[in-house]
Design brief:
about 425 residues; alpha+beta; Chloramphenicol Acetyltransferase; 2 domains; six-stranded mixed sheet; four-stranded mixed sheet; 15 strands; about 35% helix
Length: about 425
């Protein structure tokens, strides 16, 4: 096991945003901002290989047990000592993965990553991975699992050190950096003038994390992909799924007899560069922000095209880089002041809903601890506000869509409506 050395690293802009949101969640009884990842494995899984690999990776990941240090107006940092140690425990359970996932996601955990294995009678297994969102994003979790899979091979070399840190550090001078951050200002203030609505409302309140996963078979996924291709021509297909998500939420508001002045949502932009040595830990993302008026959501295809136009406009202006620069500046704000500013500019909602489409799920791994990876997806929990989130990914030619919500944000009947509307729009039936 590697010898840990004392060290520290700055929080990314996304880290500080998530820490600020988690402070609100803890203060209102929502608990830690955690995520869940589900791996469905074929025969051959070796739990001892997982335990050994998790222990080795924990020894090389002191950042996972680091303490946060934040000067009043300084940059927050993760800081750890030479003796800092963490653990990624591996347990077993029985029953359905859904029930085990509900319990795991809502139970407090001192471990930043925790595994629960559900063996099946035919030799298959489902592995649940609970992770702290303040330290890992969706791609980071996949890189974490890929490293576990590599270390589970008895012939694998030792774990790599320093798998954390800002992936795209600032190289220009302070004035140039401030000008880059300022490019997002006009876009930010324009969005803040548009009233938005979330299903959970603007009040932060306690509520358990809930989720359901809508699975699409290979034939359905092929149909969805072809329909998206016809509209987007392969450019920013995320807009097709974002438009469907907006329409799901609009359907619920209309059922309630309510209206929204606009729908707004950010889409994560991965900052890990292709071909580089990717950091596993910390949230390495920026965002692009999209909005549509209710009238623009009358037709799914036209809404997707409008979102594609917004994508083109924002990428030409490099607003993803501008937003990343701005969030790096915002790290100096105290968490409560930062969150108060965001809530004020969004009418208390933060966003209409959380959203992502992470593409192919865990492409780095065909096998995991001796077993083939047959399927998998992420289940991020969401805060209230906004109360809901929808997250898409693919594995082996099959699409999965996770709907996450805070208890009290949507009713059972509204959830049925959201699922039906999603299938109707994506499949065109």
């Amino acid at each position: 096991m590697p010898v840990t050395q004392a060290g520290r690293t700055e929080l990314s802009g996304a880290d500080w945003f998530l820490f600020s949101v988690e402070q609100m969640m803890r203060a209102t009884g929502q608990g830690e901002h955690a995520g869940l990842t589900v791996l469905r494995l074929g025969p051959g899984f070796e739990i001892d290989a997982l335990r050994s690999a998790a222990s080795r990776l924990a020894g090389a990941s002191p950042i996972a047990a680091a303490r946060l240090r934040k000067p009043i107006l300084g940059v927050p940092r993760w800081q750890w000592g030479a003796e800092t140690r963490t653990d990624f425990p591996v347990g077993e359970a029985s029953g359905t993965w859904k029930n085990a996932g509900d319990e795991l996601l809502n139970a407090p955990s001192e471990a930043p990553v925790k595994f629960v294995v559900l063996p099946e009678a035919d030799g298959r297994a489902t592995v649940l991975v609970r992770w702290r969102h303040g330290l890992l994003d969706g791609k980071g979790v996949e890189l974490f699992l890929a490293e576990i899979a590599r270390l589970a091979d008895g012939k694998a070399e030792s774990t790599r050190e320093n798998s954390w840190g800002v992936s795209a550090p600032r190289t220009q001078g302070w004035r140039a950096f401030a000008r880059e951050a300022g490019k997002f200002k006009d876009h930010f203030y324009a969005l803040s003038k548009l009233g938005i609505r979330s299903l959970g409302g603007a009040e932060a309140r306690a509520g358990a994390a809930r989720f359901c996963v809508e699975e699409f078979n290979a034939e359905e996924t092929a149909r969805i992909t072809a329909r998206a291709e016809n509209v987007t021509h392969g450019v920013f297909q995320m807009g097709w799924f974002l438009a469907a998500t907006m329409r799901m939420h609009l359907a619920v508001l209309e059922r309630r007899g309510e209206t929204a002045e606009s729908f707004q949502s950010g889409c994560a932009v991965q900052q890990r560069k292709r071909g580089s040595r990717h950091p596993i830990w910390q949230n390495q993302v920026s965002q692009l922000f999209f909005h549509l008026l209710p009238a623009e959501l009358a037709d799914h295809a036209s809404a997707a095209r409008r979102l594609n136009e917004q994508f083109g406009e924002q990428t030409r202006q490099r607003l993803d880089a501008a937003f990343a620069a701005m969030t790096r500046l915002f790290r100096r704000l105290p968490a409560r002041l930062y969150l108060r500013m965001l809530l004020r500019n969004s009418g208390g909602h933060l966003t209409s809903f959380f959203f992502s489409h992470t593409g192919e799920f865990l492409p780095e791994c065909k096998t995991f601890c001796g077993a083939p990876v047959e399927d998998g997806w992420h289940i991020p929990s969401v805060s209230q506000p906004p109360g809901t989130g929808v997250f898409f990914s693919n594995r082996g030619g099959k699409l999965a869509a996770t709907i996450s919500w805070r208890e009290g944000s949507v009713s059972d009947e509204e959830l049925k409506l959201m699922r039906a509307k999603m299938r109707e729009d994506l499949l065109g039936i």
